Amino acid sequence: MDRIAETWVGARLRSIMQWTDEGIVIAVRAHGETAAVAELFSRSHGRHLGLVHGGRSRRLRPVLQIGNHVDATWKARLADQLGHMQIELRRGFAATAMSDPGSLAALSSLCTLLHLMPERDPHPNLYEITLFVLGFLDDDSVWPALMVRWELALLDEMGFGLDLTACAATGINDDLIYVSPKSGRAVSASAGEPYRDKLLALPAFLIKGRKVPVTSEDVRAGLALTGHFLQTRVFAPRDAKVPDVRHRMVELIERRAQAEA
Amino acid sequence: MSKAIAGPEIERMIQLLSRLPGLGPRSARKAALSLLKRREDLLMPLADALSAAVDRITHCSECGNVDTVSPCSLCRDGRRDRSVVVVVEEVGDLWALERAAAINGVYHVLGGHLSPLDGVGPDNLNIPRLLERASSGEVKEVILALNATVEGQSTMHYIKERLAPTNVAVSEIQKGVPIGGELDYLDDGTLAAAIKSRRRI
Predict the structure, then answer these.
(1) Would the keyword Endoplasmic reticulum turn up in this protein's UniProt record (chain A) (predicted)?
(2) Per the domain annotation, does A24 fall within a domain?
């Protein structure tokens, strides 16, 4: 029996020190002259780093661009070591986004904000949503609204999810048009009327089950909503500010909306 | 820890040489040994050259290039077309373009690219001087020759926006199939970029 247990433990340890997974490249740093330290947001292993030999070579440079969807095999002698990674490209989202400043800002913002996730902690739900958003970065009629949903998902995964299902004051789920900046809960039009100047706008497309066309004003309100909670709940306790690249993304979305109007 | 095999001055020399690109501790030791053997004809002239470089090297006030005079020899060259400014990230990129002799314009070195993760913003780059040059009336075209990376292209879009009020023509270098490149061996991103930037012939 002991031998069986030992074999099981041995196999388990071996599996910890080698895995194969898919992920999204979120950062790459040069290491020495030819290698790079790649940081992935992987499906089953969360945010994970690894040394990529030849990561600065001509072959791997196009692969190790942030936002790219890759297959990775990570190996290390001990579980808590940096370890080595072998990377292969699945889909090059970076190249798709490069020609459009808005898409590129969204991709950079998304990868920068993913650094908020704790290391080696899997978030498969956020991973799926991230991959979905990256797949639509070449369609500027879709990705701004998807970015709002992605930021809501990020807040949710970090434990600061907003409750947009029912009014915080009355419990009803009709006519929800505000969000309380303190509790992060939806507020109905009638209950929120006396405090309308202090409440955040809730765009209709964020209410569960509501299928409505998304306007540029909805996107602006959605980004203001997520931006407020990112700043107050995530960045302020770390004595930091929302990254400039997110401000740039918001600015580009607003500028595009103005041009279209 | 390995035991020192020479005096502290030589060990220090080896340690500093090993920091150079292309040299590890072993090759730095070889280089140091070679310098020590050829004291008169290599070590002393090299020391003099390094000392002179330390004293005289400066950044060009016009373009940000590294030279021993400011403005640099490229900016002083009267045969160059000063109406065309090629914007590059680093001095190494300028040298690469000069090696290729692809353009006879003048340059502008940004000194890096925008990088939100490393906290490099527009204020950390040589962008204000570029805007000044573009607004001077002498410049007709700005060519953004920045790297085809996410950071390089983000910097390019940012500069393009900042240059819009100056009314100079702004262009970017193309991305696609390299000379001698075979499609079968290219990555998906490069192929997609090449197809996107196709032109009618």
Answers:
(1) no
(2) yes
